[in-house]
Amino acid sequence: MERIHSALRLASQGQRNTHVFPGYDKVFAHWFTGELRCPQGAQLKYRHMGYGSIYEYDLFMEFKQGVLVAKHAKHNEVPDESIDIDKIPSFLRKQQ
């Protein structure tokens, strides 16, 4: 896993990596089927845990056996994190 993190770090810096797949400049990822989320634009909301931060846009790319089959972008907004007191169960509210 550390080799993959190192490869991603190099790629983000515009450098090629040859230590994940030695001897290969490019690799066709036929083993990958799934969706990739690529956050783009300014960061709207920071969340410390994992990939929970929210950015202006998310680019979603769907792959099937390494082939891009669909992609779409989603425009995000700053989440409303105000607390609606009526949605808090009464037993959790401070009794006066």
Structural topology:
Layout: H1 2-12, E1 34-45, E2 54-64, E3 67-75
Antiparallel strand pairs: 1-2, 2-3
Question: Which features does this protein show?
Answer:
single chain, 96 residues, mainly beta
Q: Could you explain the architecture of this structure?
A:
It is a single chain. With 96 residues, the protein is mainly beta. The chain has one helix spanning 2-12; strands spanning 34-45, 54-64, 67-75. A 3-stranded antiparallel sheet has the order 1-2-3, with no helix packed on it. β2 and β3 form a beta hairpin. The chain is elongated. The mean pLDDT is 83.
Brief description of this entry?
This protein has 1 helix and 3 strands. The chain is mainly beta and 96 residues long. A hairpin with an 8-residue loop joins β1 and β2 (54-64).
Main β sheet profile? 3 strands, antiparallel
**Which word captures the global form?**
elongated
Category by helix and strand content: mainly beta
Low-confidence stretches are none
Number of strands: 3
Give helix % range. 10-25%
Strand content: 25-35%
Instruction: Enumerate the strands of the largest sheet in spatial order, edge to edge or round the barrel.
Output: 1-2-3
Overall mean pLDDT stands at 83
Kindly, what is the distance between the CA atoms of the first and last residues, rounded to a whole number of angstroms?
Answer: 53 Å
- Oligomeric state: single chain
